[in-house]
Specification:
Blueprint: H1 2-23, H2 35-43, H3 54-62, H4 67-72, H5 74-83, H6 89-104, H7 115-135, H8 148-174, E1 181-184, E2 187-192, E3 205-208, E4 222-223, E5 228-233, E6 245-247, E7 252-258, H9 264-268, E8 272-278, E9 285-288, E10 291-294, E11 297-298, H10 301-310, H11 312-321, E12 331-334, E13 343-348, H12 359-367, H13 369-374, E14 375-381, H14 388-406, E15 419-422, H15 425-433, H16 440-445, H17 450-467, E16 483-486, E17 497-498, H18 525-538, E18 542-543, H19 574-586, H20 590-597
Parallel strand pairs: 2-8, 6-12, 13-14, 13-15, 15-16
Antiparallel strand pairs: 1-2, 3-5, 4-11, 5-7, 7-8, 9-10, 12-14, 17-18
């Protein structure tokens, strides 16, 4: 009996020793993590993976909740976290926003049975709590500028607003009889797009710009900020063939969801919300009370989607061959809504081509902030199987009609100092658009027999508009004439033009109008060398690159120099070559230079 008691005592003592030994073990252990694992832990969240972020998991652990359980059933965790006190509102609102987003993105079996209404409500609540975190918690947004958590919550807001706008766009197409307002849960959401140029049109499709990837476009230009980057398809079923101009049918837009209230409780309890539409080309910031934040924007997605769906490549070839759905009249496409305070860059494509030829040039202009702030891009799409004289007249009329529609008085900045960029046939047309022939063509044509003079005299009444060259409407003021640049779309443009220097074409061609800008039509290496040399010697005042935006320099009072070349484009020889060089060096006309040589 005593031995049994001794054995039990020893066993108890051994158990106590084991317990004491166990509790004495270290509870904290350290290990190594790779940089990849560290970044994944710090920045991974429900958007980049299938699990909640580390910040939300820590917040749930403080509330005694399991993160994996909350991923499968977010609603009970949201309710528990909403009433838990005390807790930092930054932690609470950011965690609730991510869990609402997890519920909206739930793709488990049976999730679709809840329908789009439940998904819309989840996205709305995710945006609401992210909005509350950004503007109505303990610290202002600028104080958290370098925190990863604020970047994550900004992404929650942008993604929730993006998906909500897409769902509302789908709902608007199905219920055309309803206005731009709807009820989501207990919140009345009003869509406000009155500031957009296409506000009177009903969108056919709303596409997330972040979901688009393009091949053939060198760069994608965007601006980080708050708001959902969207592309809106507003193509109409019936194209207005009578109109010479039209806006790009897939404009870019930024959606911003605003909740009323000037406090955290006011935002969380608001039963109204406004989904605002902004034009990223015009609006760069958005204000929330005394806080101003940058507005997100994508400047490539709308342009790229338009080109991808346009069918220009097929139509341009069909037009050249005169088959299929051929183009009959020039069209002017505005790459962005008309702005009277921005100068116009007019792009003219070449033979058997289309606006697709300028894909990277136009995209670079739209993407550069300084160029975008000072210029607007218009692209001309014209039939290349039509004679150049007819195209010249039609393009000039279409451009004049477009300017008259947007600026009837002609006093806007956009109506002056036009910049024309042409390629191939477009370069020839650009040269003609700033030339003035007067009666030179008719005087040349009527020389000869009386029968010939009588024939052209009878034709003058009907053919005069086509066979008479006149500068574009912007060429009415001295030293405010169009600037011409000839470029290859596949290569970057060297933004440099010479002031008040014109090149005379071969014999029996028309002289340049007074004050026109230089344009070169040759393509051989020798011709390019002659043009470069002439530009250096003839122009005493050259304006720097357009990107510098310096003040316009005064035009020098010097007559145009002449360049002579043979019909095959070879370098001038002998007396012509010497006279040309002397003329460009001294600024004297070609005839005076030849007299000096003699």
């Amino acid at each position: 009996m005593e031995s049994a008691m001794i054995i039990r005592a020893l066993l108890r003592l051994l158990l106590v020793v084991l317990v004491l030994h166990t509790t004495a073990c270290a509870m904290v252990k350290v290990g190594d993590v790779s940089p990849r694992e560290y970044i994944a832990h710090r920045r991974g969240d429900i958007l980049s993976g299938r699990h909640l972020s580390g910040h939300t998991a820590e917040t749930l652990a403080m509330a005694g909740l399991d993160a994996r359980t909350c991923e499968r059933a977010p609603s009970p965790c949201i309710a528990s976290l909403s009433v838990l006190s005390p807790m930092s509102e930054e932690r609470r609102q950011s965690a609730i926003a991510e869990m609402w987003l997890a519920r909206a993105m739930d793709d488990t079996p049976g999730a679709d049975e809840r329908g789009d209404k439940a998904r819309e409500a989840a996205y709305l609540e995710a945006a609401r709590h992210a909005y509350a975190y950004l503007f109505y918690t303990e610290r202002a947004a600028p104080e958290r500028a370098f925190e990863d958590r604020q970047t994550q919550v900004r992404d929650y807001y942008n993604y929730a607003v993006q998906q909500l706008a897409i769902l509302l766009g789908h709902h608007s197409r199905e219920h055309t009889e309803k206005g731009m307002a709807t009820d989501i849960g207990q919140t009345h959401v009003v869509v406000d797009i009155h500031t957009l140029a296409w506000a009177n049109q009903r969108p056919r499709e709303v596409v997330a710009a972040s979901a688009l990837r393009f091949e053939g476009i060198r760069s994608t230009y965007r601006r980080d900020g708050l708001g959902a980057e969207l592309v809106v398809d507003v193509r109409s079923a019936e194209d207005k063939e009578s109109s010479a101009y039209r806006s790009m049918p897939t404009p870019s837009a930024t959606a911003f969801l605003r909740f009323p209230g000037d406090s955290l409780a006011g935002v969380l309890g608001a039963r109204d919300a406004v989904l605002e539409g902004h034009d990223p080309f015009r609006d760069a910031t958005v204000s929330m009370g005394e806080t101003t934040v940058p507005l997100a924007g994508n400047f490539t997605a709308g342009y790229g989607l338009w080109l991808a769906r346009s069918g220009f490549a097929t139509q341009s070839l069909a037009t050249l061959l005169g088959r299929g759905d051929a183009l009959t009249q020039p069209r002017i496409y505005l790459m962005q809504p008309y702005d009277p305070n921005r100068r116009i860059i007019l792009l003219l494509h070449g033979l058997a081509s289309s606006p697709e030829a300028w894909v990277n040039v136009a995209n670079d202009i739209l993407g550069d902030e300084r160029l975008r702030r000072n210029f607007q891009v218009w692209q001309v799409y014209y039939p290349t199987n039509v004679p150049i004289a007819v195209n010249n007249r039609a393009i000039r009329d279409a451009f004049a009609q477009t300017l008259a529609h947007f600026d009837p008085s002609g006093n806007a900045v956009a109506s002056h100092q036009l910049i024309i960029i042409g390629h191939s046939m477009g370069g020839i047309l650009a040269r003609l658009l700033v030339s003035s022939s007067g009666d030179a063509l008719w005087n040349e044509a009527t020389q000869g027999s009386a029968r010939k003079r009588a024939f052209f005299k009878s034709m003058r009444a009907t053919s005069a508009p086509t066979c008479t060259l006149m500068p574009c409407p912007t060429s009415t003021r001295p030293c405010s004439l169009p600037r011409l640049i000839v470029a290859r779309p596949s290569r970057p443009i060297r933004w440099r033009v010479c002031c008040r220097t014109s090149f005379a074409c071969p014999a029996r061609s028309l002289p340049a109008s007074e004050g026109s800008w230089p344009i070169s039509m040759g393509t051989t290496g020798k011709q390019r060398a002659v043009r470069r040399r002439s530009c250096r010697t003839a122009s005493t005042t050259c304006r720097p690159a357009i990107r510098s935006f310096g003040p316009r320099q005064p035009c020098p009072s010097m007559p145009p120099c002449a360049i002579t070349r043979s019909s095959r484009g070879k370098k001038p020889k002998g007396r012509s070559r010497t006279a040309t060089t002397d003329s460009c060096r001294t600024g004297a006309p070609i005839s005076q230079a030849r007299q000096a040589k003699r």
